[in-house]
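Discussion board: Methods & Data

I've been asked by a reviewer to show the raw model output for two of the constructs in my manuscript, not just the figures. I'm not sure how much to include, so I'm pasting the format here to get opinions. Each protein appears as its amino acid sequence followed by a line of discrete structure tokens. Is this the kind of thing reviewers expect to see in a supplement, or should I convert it first? Here is construct A:
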Amino acid sequence: DPQGRFYCGSIGYDEALGKVTEALASEGFGVLTEIDVAKTLKAKIGVDFRRYKILGACNPPLAHEALSSSLEVGAMLPCNVIVYEGDDGRAVVHAIDPLRTVAAAEPSLAPFASRVHDKLERVMDKLA
């Protein structure tokens, strides 16, 4: 995927949420935020939307390293991972590629972005 790494699985949405959280933890990420997009859209504008969550994942040592190099990188933290229910009922998981975001915005952070990229790639591989 040109936008980043993604996984389209044969598992359901609820199972995918659990597996994503476990896979993130295995790579040192905790989920700091969880936005239930469907619930928010229903509450705010009264529309129905597919099951869709945005997980704000953070690896504290890597976040500290990046922020110590560039305070502005905080605008791109935490790493967002989305999980939604596809039209076929199966889960879709997508994580943006920090090599295309963080490293593109701040080239000096390319080594950091590369390490985060590798960790997120392993997360997606664990879902396969």
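Construct B, same format:
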Amino acid sequence: TANPTVSKSHKGKNGQGKIKACKKVEDHKKWLLNRAEKNGFQLSCDDFDVVQNKWKVFTKQGHQRISLLSVTFEGILTIINVELFRKALVNGIGRGKAYGMGLLTVIHV
């Protein structure tokens, strides 16, 4: 389960981009494929799918509400770099880790 996002160009403070949720299933898949190699694994489009996507609302201190898109992927991956994959497994990937997203659950088959 992850929070797939992209940074869009935005003329704002310090030239930083604006963070936007990937809303389409194709974009969810593209997001994971783009992060696979740098996190020590590989996938093909046929090896995984999006099994759930829903908005979750969290309340921070001071009653500020945050909405994050939670996307659950399921499929088969191949580990290509054990150290990078171990780091991704321990630390998670993407944004939303503080809200329980970006964590990997792996079953060896």
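Answer (T.O., handling editor elsewhere):
This is acceptable in a supplement if you add a one-line summary per construct. For B, something like: The first strand starts at residue 5 and ends at 8.
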